[in-house]
Amino acid sequence: MDYLLTEEQQMIKDLCRQIAEEKIKPVAAQYDEEAHFPWDIVKIMADSDICGVYIPEQYGGMGKGVFELAIATEELSWGCGGIALAFAATGLGTFPILLYGNEQQKAKYLPDIAKGKKLAAFCITEAEAGSDAGSIKTTAKKEGDYYVLNGTKQWITNGGEADVYTVIAMTDKTKGARGASAFIVEKGTPGLSFGKKENKIGIRASATREVIFTDCKVPKANLLGKEGLGFIVAMKTFDHSRPGVAAQALGIAQRALDEAVKYSHERKQFGTAISNFQGVSFMLADMAIQVEAARALIYSAARMIDSGAKDVAKVSAMAKTFASDVAMKVTVDAIQVFGGYGYMKEYPVEKLMRDAKITQIYEGTNQIQRSVIASSLIKECLAKK
After folding, report:
1. Which architecture, in CATH terms, is 121-230?
2. How far apart are CA 42 and CA 22, in angstroms?
3. Which of 1, 115, 161, 200 stands the most exposed, by the fewest C-beta atoms within 10 Å?
4. Long-range contacts of 97-100 (CB under 8 A, 24+ apart)
5. Which contiguous run of DSSP H or E holds residue 183?
6. How many angstroms separate the Cα of 264 from the Cα of each of 67, 80, 339?
7. Rounded Cα gap, residues 377 and 195, in angstroms
8. What are phi and psi of 136, to 5 degrees?
9. Cα gap 385→377, rounded to integer Å
């Protein structure tokens, strides 16, 4: 379908697909097997000037938005969802600064992120606070010109590799979610350390670690917004970042479809290509419908966010939920098209399925997304009365 991309948007799309095909695809299986963090690919992205696609021009970026971030993430994820995550998760860690940072904070942190010199990460999840983000226990106690952070964040993407961490911590436990605040913490700050690299079934080229705060002194100048704004910072960040997860899922699904179509044309059974069998051809058709529907929803959601629309939680959640469910369905069907070969690691589709699964889980499980969508529907209904 023609989504009426501008010349510059098409250039971003083509450049990222070129990187995916020439630089990422050839090493994806090896990086997956070795759980190798893709610093060499990050350098290629940086040299190609795509790291700052969503960062304003005055801070060294391209001055584009969520739509361009989604386009780039989709194409890079076509090559490998795990490798692309170094780029996409940096967007997640950067959005709190873009949305709530003051001029000094933006000028200090955004230029290096835009140039790919530094990666970012977002820290909210804890052992007992996953979907229930309001139950975080990491604390930030104000002492003079500093906040002292104590606690452990779990399953942090880019953990240990990123230089900039946006962190949600409790400044007033008595206020519940309204007592959370957001901070920027730099790698190398005394009291900041990292746990072991998690051994995951998918996105294995991406680093996932605990981020540990032990009497970690953070300057009060690193507070994002004001005290008590942390939960809002997190929710608004997710509203902007979830189309990126959706785009990651879309890239994985598109790759699975492409591999399945190619294989079905080459694989012969009963004297003909298996693509000539209705059972297979209908599967391919359904896969293509689902992928294109996901793309249309993601692009629409991203454009809505970039337009400045105020209430985007519902459409952002819809894009993330639908695209990630599609990715899981399409990658499983791709394995079925490949038959026994699809189950073997010598072929790419089993990895695509493993990479797809996480998109249904992180940045809010799809069950939580459906709660967000349903809540928005009820609120809209009541507003009409």
Report:
1. Beta Barrel (2.40)
2. 14
3. 1
4. 97/164, 97/166, 97/184, 97/224, 98/54, 98/55, 98/56, 99/233, 99/236, 99/237, 99/240, 100/182, 100/224, 100/225, 100/229, 100/233, 100/236
5. strand 180-186
6. 33, 22, 10
7. 40
8. -65, 145
9. 13
How far is the CA of 269 from the CAs of 150, 259, 282, 312, 333, in angstroms? 62, 18, 17, 49, 18
| Of the candidates 247, 208, 254, the residue with the CA atom closest to the CA atom of residue 348 | 254
Per-residue pLDDT of the chain (385 residues; tens, 9 = 90+): 889 999 999 999 999 999 999 999 999 999 999 999 999 999 999 999 999 999 999 999 999 999 999 999 999 999 999 999 999 999 999 999 999 999 999 999 999 999 999 999 999 999 999 888 778 999 999 999 999 999 999 999 999 999 999 999 999 999 988 999 999 999 999 999 999 999 999 999 999 999 999 999 999 999 999 999 999 999 999 999 999 999 999 999 999 999 999 999 999 999 999 999 999 999 999 999 999 999 999 999 999 999 999 889 999 999 999 999 999 999 999 999 999 999 999 999 999 999 999 999 999 999 999 999 999 999 999 988 8
Kindly indicate whether the domain formed by 238-383 is annotated with CATH number 1.20.140.10. Answer: yes
Domain 7-119 has CATH 1.10.540.10: yes
d(CA 312, CA 12): 25
- In degrees rounded to 5, what are phi and psi of residue 22? -90, -30
Does the global pTM surpass 0.90? yes
With the C-alpha atoms ordered 91, 94, 98, 100, is the resulting torsion angle positive or negative? Answer: positive
Report residue 141: phi and psi, to 5°.
Answer: -105, 125
Burial class (CB in 10 A: 0-12, 13-18, 19+), 338: buried
Q: What is the DSSP letter of 54?
A: T
Where along the chain do the CATH 1.10.540.10 domains lie?
A: 7-119
User: Range(s) for CATH 2.40.110.10 in the chain?
Assistant: 121-230
Residue with tokens 């005290």: 227
Closest-CA residue to 13 (of 96, 74, 66, 54): 74
Residues annotated as catalytic are: 363
Distances (CA, A) of 104 to 59, 100, 140, 293, 343: 11, 12, 21, 41, 52
Return d(Cα 161, Cα 42) in angstroms, integer. 11
